[in-house]
Structures are given as C-alpha cells and as structure tokens.
Design goal:
367 residues, alpha/beta, 3-stranded antiparallel sheet, 17 helices
Length: 367
C-alpha cells in the first residue's frame, strides 16, 4: 500500500501528464471543430426547431456514408466534451422502443449558436482552420532554426514558398475564404463595438475604413451613424471585387502611399499584420489626412492590446495564441507600451484604450 506522500506525488504526476496531453491533443479539438463545419453539423441540428437532434436526425441532414455513422458518434462525443454541443443521454432502462431511444440528444450551445444563422462566425472559423493556414505551424520548430532577415520571417512563406497575399492573388478559393472570414468577423464584432463604444464614432462627419476589404465594418458604421460618410480604401484588385449598393464609397489605393482625407481613419485587424516601421508609415499617412483633434480628428483601431481586458487565464492565453498566430505573416500583437511607441513616433499626441471587445480593444489615437 502506497504511503500517503507517495500517493500525492503520483497524483501530481498524473495531473501534469493530463495537462501535457491537453496541449498535445489540442489539434484534435481544432480538427473536430473543422469537421463539424465541413459537415455543417450545427446547421443540421439547428434545422430541428428545438435546436436539438440525435445522430440519426443529424445524418438525415448531412451527406455521410453509412460506414461513417459510428465514427460520427465518436466525433459528436468529442464536440460535446469540448463544449461545442451538449449531450443529454436517455435515462437508463427507458421506454425500450427502437434503437433511437438509446441515442443521446445533442443541443446547440452558445458556442455552436455562433456557427448558425444569417450572421454567423462559421466563415472566420473555417478561414482560421484552413489547411493553408494550419499546416505552416507543423514546421514551427524548424522555422525557428532558420536564419532569415527580420523582414522575411514569415511562417506561411517558409511553408508554401509564397506570402499569404501572393496566395490570395493566385488561388481564388483561398481568396474567397479569407474575404468571407473577414466579413463574418466584421458583422459580429462591429455590432458589439457600436453597442459598447458608440462614443468612438460620434462627432465625426467622415471616416475611411483603411484596408477594409469588402467594407462590412464601414457598412455597419454607416448604418448606425447615418450622418457619417464612410469610405473603404483597399488595393485595386480588392476594390474590383467589392459589392455594389452598400451605401459606402470604395476607393482603390495603397495605405503605404497615401490615404484620402476624412475626420477619422478606421482599422480593424489591419495594423497587427505589420511590423512597427510599416505601422508608423501608415499612421503618418493617417496623421496627414485627418484634421486636428479639436475638429474631430482621430484614428480608431480594433485590435488586441496584450495585457489589457479581462484578466482570466482564457483571455490571457488567447491573446498569447493570437500573437503567435501572427508569425504566419510576420505580424504581431502589441501591448500598451508598444502601441504607445508607434503612435508617438507617427506624430500622435495621445490615445485611449477601451477594452470592451473580449480579447480585443477599441483604441483611439489623437493627433
């Protein structure tokens, strides 16, 4: 019989092993979620009015060979264990009818409800789990050992021989996945941003969404604040694919060269794509394009500020994971000191951080 101290030691070892396995098998959680998206399992469950369904009911709504149904049950067990769905098991010794009487009932959770409906996060989740964006991290260890110039340290290019932007130019399906992902994130986060921090957009007459793609964020601002003239600046090949009749103006241009004048410049998930020197160059162009602070001039940014916002472990971990993720394009997430540095070097005199967007914040920089 083990001594009490030895038992505690063994339990500590087993707990440590469990933590190690949690990290080791984290990719299976991601791939289970990707499979659920590929199979549209959440949509299949949502089809039933109560938002709950058994595996046979799910199979009725998705394309699946009969040989894979036992494996689907195992996938659903993982998705329930990780909180994507909940599973309610029938009581032991139930009615004893057919085989379906023994089937667990899977129900949408707040997580999986984000994957259904007209404005859902399935596109951005699918984008983040796209094989082209996941596979470079399999080579992260070898990438660290390669000697490269600082400006060339792009994990994606190391894996694929081209940058993300070059692949979007050459691969229409990948380009669509990226654009659809950005639009879905804008639909989600802009509703929250406008609800939680409307003051950031009040008192301005015009706004340019810099690097705004198809203009989902600008459209949300224009709808919430009809008195603000909203424009989108992006590269010409992006603007060429932009939708029509959105209520915003689309301008082809390069933010590194010049930015059209407006009271406010807006960036959502743009500046974290670039290093400090590139950001300073972009912000200097913004500084030239906006009026003084007393006339409403400002730059509004939605991005992560590391160490700001909720202090629980999940938020801290997610900010750290996002920062590592940005290695894929040699971008970075910044803490407040790093944001302050690029603002002041670009000629701005003050800033304000409002941490109301989960792991992200709204930042206002003033000339």
């Amino acid at each position: 019989m083990a001594l009490n101290g030895s038992t505690h030691h063994n339990q500590d070892l087993l707990d440590a092993q469990l933590e190690l396995w949690q990290s080791t098998f984290g990719y299976i959680k991601s791939m289970a979620l990707k499979s659920a998206l590929d199979l549209r399992i959440a949509d299949a469950i949502d089809h039933y009015g109560c938002g709950s369904a058994t595996v046979p009911q799910i199979v009725d709504r998705i394309t699946l060979p009969s040989s894979k149904i036992p494996h689907l049950r195992r996938l659903m067990r993982v998705l329930a264990a990780t909180g994507v769905f909940t599973a309610q098991h029938p009581p032991a010794g139930g009615s004893g009818g057919g085989d379906d009487d023994d089937e667990p009932m899977y129900t949408l959770t707040p997580v999986s409800r984000l994957l259904v409906g007209s404005r859902n996060l399935a596109p951005i989740t699918s984008m983040l789990l796209h094989p082209a964006l996941v596979s470079p991290f399999l080579e992260l260890g070898s990438w660290f050992q390669e000697k490269e110039a600082p400006e060339s340290c792009q994990l994606f290019k190391h894996a694929h021989g081209q940058t993300v932007w070059e692949q979007t130019d050459r691969d229409a399906a990948f380009d669509a996945a990226v654009n659809d992902g950005m639009v879905s994130d804008s639909h989600f986060i802009m509703d929250v941003a406008i609800d939680e921090c409307a003051g950031a957009f009040q008192g301005i007459r015009s706004l340019v969404d810099v690097g705004g793609g198809f203009g989902a964020a600008a459209q949300a601002i224009a709808k919430a604040f009809p008195g603000v003239k909203c424009s989108v600046l992006d590269l010409d090949h992006v603007i060429a694919k932009a939708p029509c009749d959105t209520g915003v103006q689309y301008i082809a241009g390069d933010m590194f060269e010049s930015i059209p004048p407006a009271d406010a410049m807006f960036f959502k998930w743009v500046l974290h794509d670039w290093g400090d020197e590139e950001c300073i160059r972009i912000l200097k162009n913004c500084r030239k394009a906006i009026p003084p602070r007393e006339e409403g001039g400002k730059v509004i940014i939605i991005d992560i500020v590391i160490g700001v916002g909720p202090s629980d472990l999940r938020h801290k971990e997610m900010q750290a994971l996002f920062d590592t993720y940005m290695m894929i394009i040699n971008g970075k997430e910044r803490n407040e000191k790093e944001w302050k540095k690029i603002f002041f070097k670009a000629g701005f005199s003050d800033y304000k951080i409002t941490p109301v967007l989960g792991v992200r914040s709204i930042i206002e920089a003033y000339p």
